[in-house]
Amino acid sequence: MNMNSISVLKLVLFIFWPWLVNSKGEQNRLLVNMTLVQNATALGAYCLDGSLPAYHLHRGFGAGVDNWLLQFEGGGWCNDIKSCLDRSKSNHGSTRYMNKWEVFSGILSNNASFNPDFYNWNRVKIRYCDGASFSGDAKFYNGTSLLYFRGQRIWQAIILDLLPKGLGHAKKAMLSGCSAGGLATFLHCDNFTSYLPNNASVKCLSDAGFFLDERDIALNHTMRSFYEGLITLQGVEPNLNLNCTSTLYYPHLCFFPQYALPFIETPFFILNSAYDVYQFHHILVPPSSDPRRHWDHCKLNVTACDTSQLNILQGFRIDMLTALRDFYQNSTRDGMYINSCFTHCQSETQDTWFAAGSPRIHNKTIAETVGDWYFSRNISKEIDCAYPCDTTCHHMI
Ligand SMILES: *[C@@H]1O[C@H](CO)[C@@H](O)[C@H](O)[C@H]1NC(C)=O
Ligand SMILES: *[C@@H]1O[C@H](CO)[C@@H](O)[C@H](O)[C@H]1NC(C)=O
Ligand SMILES: *[C@@H]1O[C@H](CO)[C@@H](O)[C@H](O)[C@H]1NC(C)=O
Ligand SMILES: *[C@@H]1O[C@H](CO)[C@@H](O)[C@H](O)[C@H]1NC(C)=O
Ligand SMILES: *[C@@H]1O[C@H](CO)[C@@H](O)[C@H](O)[C@H]1NC(C)=O
Ligand SMILES: *[C@@H]1O[C@H](CO)[C@@H](O)[C@H](O)[C@H]1NC(C)=O
Ligand SMILES: *[C@@H]1O[C@H](CO)[C@@H](O)[C@H](O)[C@H]1NC(C)=O
Ligand SMILES: *[C@@H]1O[C@H](CO)[C@@H](O)[C@H](O)[C@H]1NC(C)=O
Ligand SMILES: *[C@@H]1O[C@H](CO)[C@@H](O)[C@H](O)[C@H]1NC(C)=O
Ligand SMILES: *[C@@H]1O[C@H](CO)[C@@H](O)[C@H](O)[C@H]1NC(C)=O
Ligand SMILES: *[C@@H]1O[C@H](CO)[C@@H](O)[C@H](O)[C@H]1NC(C)=O
Ligand SMILES: *[C@@H]1O[C@H](CO)[C@@H](O)[C@H](O)[C@H]1NC(C)=O
């Protein structure tokens, strides 16, 4: 290619760039700035490293001015001193290292053509900096190293900060979150309801937060052990659902959504893939369960999985649907969308939430199904057929 054709290419790109960006739905990208919760010190609510917790708020307007959507950020967990110390020096453990501006897309978008039902609500993204899904209450100090495990207090500090900003007289409200934030939604849903007016309509949505209590392929309880370490280190147990912990023989298990779910009183929507990539890689086939790395290709690219690997993945899907059977059958106030895509988190990205090529079940997008459930327009319990039948998926490769 000579210089001339490069200049022509540059010119073409320059002219068509806005169109290219527009075609991906990224034009009008909404960036929202960070609010540090100054009053958090009064509650001892700190990030792992002692920095102040934070959220990003974009105000509602028009008919949505009294409605509030709170969205927990996700980002895994830390379950021992070393992993929490590492985390405290990163954007997952300290607001010092976080982006001060966040993109609001998908369920957080302010544009009706990208987010038909929640675009005009007050929308809040709650930053994740405690490493225990906003549920710990402890502190580590050995003379040299200091770590705050104060997720529960961060949750409370943020709610108390938002109540006088209008949350306290909300007409409609929804608590949501993705991944570790989706798990936080299960843990805090009823507590959220308790802060809102009795006549408000309050519901909760978990995206990719239905982490299963499942053995890995070596038959070890890898995830159970991981959560046990986390619960002990961060002092989580007193903050779990009391009805659950007083019923179960092993109260720690109430950290798993499948055990806490029957005790949640607020209407709930579960959005999850039956082949959630995080669960596949960390619960079903963690590195410790596959020392000879037979699964490496399959993990990166599902079309490279062999028949026995696919059978194991189909078994995981069946176990997830079994854990959700009562939830599916019992109640009409709840909703679900369990699709069959190799993915993780589908409500925050525009492509998967609501776009021309978004995933669909029975021709309904995730945004339409969540909206139908929230506004009681229709029964919203969708279960996809098993992999590979769904051609609308955006598989991670
Ligand atoms: C950032 O957010 C604060 C509220 O925390 C607001 O007062 C301020 O005007 C915002 N700054 C910009 C540049 O938008
Ligand atoms: C919403 O997005 C559409 C399609 O990109 C655009 O035409 C419209 O101007 C946007 N509206 C607002 C309020 O940003
Ligand atoms: C405190 O804990 C850190 C991290 O585990 C360790 O590196 C350090 O040596 C400990 N300090 C003391 C005095 O035990
Ligand atoms: C909600 O959680 C806070 C702590 O974050 C606690 O003080 C309060 O009692 C809880 N409310 C209910 C109704 O459980
Ligand atoms: C912070 O706390 C003080 C004392 O409790 C209270 O008077 C003040 O209104 C609070 N400020 C905010 C922004 O919540
Ligand atoms: C709830 O009750 C308050 C006080 O009576 C009223 O101002 C508010 O509009 C009501 N909200 C809804 C959603 O009905
Ligand atoms: C997993 O289980 C095997 C036996 O099934 C055991 O030898 C191994 O130590 C376990 N690995 C881990 C990481 O727990
Ligand atoms: C659903 O119904 C079954 C049978 O009536 C009951 O045992 C179970 O606890 C219920 N589950 C939930 C989530 O309400
Ligand atoms: C939780 O326990 C309280 C107090 O015992 C009880 O009133 C409530 O009905 C229980 N909720 C559920 C969902 O079991
Ligand atoms: C995925 O694996 C299949 C089968 O092994 C292969 O044909 C394909 O090229 C791979 N795709 C990518 C993106 O690596
Ligand atoms: C699927 O829904 C779209 C609108 O979202 C509609 O245009 C299309 O006709 C529907 N397809 C089928 C097969 O119903
Ligand atoms: C409700 O859902 C059913 C099944 O998906 C569909 O056939 C019907 O058209 C929907 N009704 C409305 C009002 O959207």
For this entry, give a set of tags:
single chain, 397 residues, alpha/beta, Rossmann fold, 10-stranded mixed sheet, two-stranded antiparallel ribbon, 14 helices, 12 strands, 16% strand, globular, binds 2-acetamido-2-deoxy-beta-D-glucopyranose, signal, cell wall, EC 3.1.1.-, pectin acetylesterase activity
Quick description:
It is built from 14 helices and 12 strands. A hairpin with a 4-residue loop joins strand 6 and strand 7 (about 145-150).
Q: How would you summarize the topology of this molecule?
A:
Layout: H1 3-23, E1 30-36, H2 40-43, E2 54-58, E3 67-72, H3 81-88, E4 101-104, E5 122-126, E6 138-141, E7 146-149, H4 151-162, E8 172-178, H5 180-195, E9 201-207, H6 222-234, H7 242-245, H8 257-260, E10 268-273, H9 277-284, H10 296-300, H11 307-323, H12 325-330, E11 335-339, H13 350-353, H14 366-374, E12 381-383
Parallel strand pairs: 3-5, 3-8, 8-9, 9-10, 10-11, 11-12
Antiparallel strand pairs: 1-2, 1-4, 2-5, 6-7
One 2-acetamido-2-deoxy-beta-D-glucopyranose binds at residues 39, 42, 161.
